[in-house]
Amino acid sequence: MTMAKLTLFYKGRAIHSHALEGKRTTIGRDKDCDIVIDSLAVSPKHAIITRSGPHFHIKPTGSNKDILVNHQPSGEQLLIHGDMIQLGQYSLTFAESAVTLDFSKTTRPSTAGGRPTETNINHDKLDELVGSLNVLPKSCLQIISGEHLGKTIPLHRSLLRLGLSGNQCAIIAHRSDGYYLSHLEGDCPPLVNGKAINDKSVLLSDGSVIQIGDIQMRFHEEIAKAAAI
Fold it and tell me: Which residues lie below 8 Å from residue 126, measured CB to CB, with a gap of 6+?
């Protein structure tokens, strides 16, 4: 588990995550801001997030009277898990904590393109993730290839990172209309039902097959369906 963070999206694609470590976090076009968004739709000093104990509040700054939170104009507001802040074609999603599922590379010889020939799931981290859950979620991923065939990964958070930072990495984000998969890092985008998603965010449907490296997972809208397979 990690601390609270904001994930920046552009046209639905996740491009950056920022951990909310300090007492205040500034958002704007100005290069001095903690989160810089290079867009004319964003003011130089657009908004500020302040932390009070475990709680985070956002409020507009400068000449802004309102900001859009979950598509609604808002002044100062308490942020809750899953809130989305609209900034033109950009958006920020607030997560009280995010789950990361790491994939560890093997030391087998590389392919002609220099990429590893196999990717394995870190079994200890997967068991820790699944064992830490107290609430049974509605949706999940089920691993359908490799050593951990049949393992299920409950989607109990609004954000789930899959892969290794700096290598092949994707993110699943829960929005009001479902779960979206986006390519975050690496030269090879994930596949959904055999097709590369490239720069798009893809809405997952029940039974969608996701492939990251050599690992394949099936998305289930209802966790009971995975248990029945």
Answer: 101, 148, 151, 153
| Number of helices (H), then strands (E), in the chain | 2, 24
Cα gap 86→83, rounded to integer Å: 10
Residues 84 and 158 in one domain: no
Q: Which residue range forms the structural domain that includes residue 33?
A: 4-96
Strands 24-28 and 47-52 turn out to be antiparallel
Virtual torsion, Cα 146, 150, 156, 157, nearest 10 deg = 10
Cβ contact 80:57 at 8 Å: no
> 38-70 pLDDT, tens per residue?
888 888 999 999 998 888 999 998 777 778 887
pTM: 0.47
Distance of CA 12 to the CA centre of its chain: 11
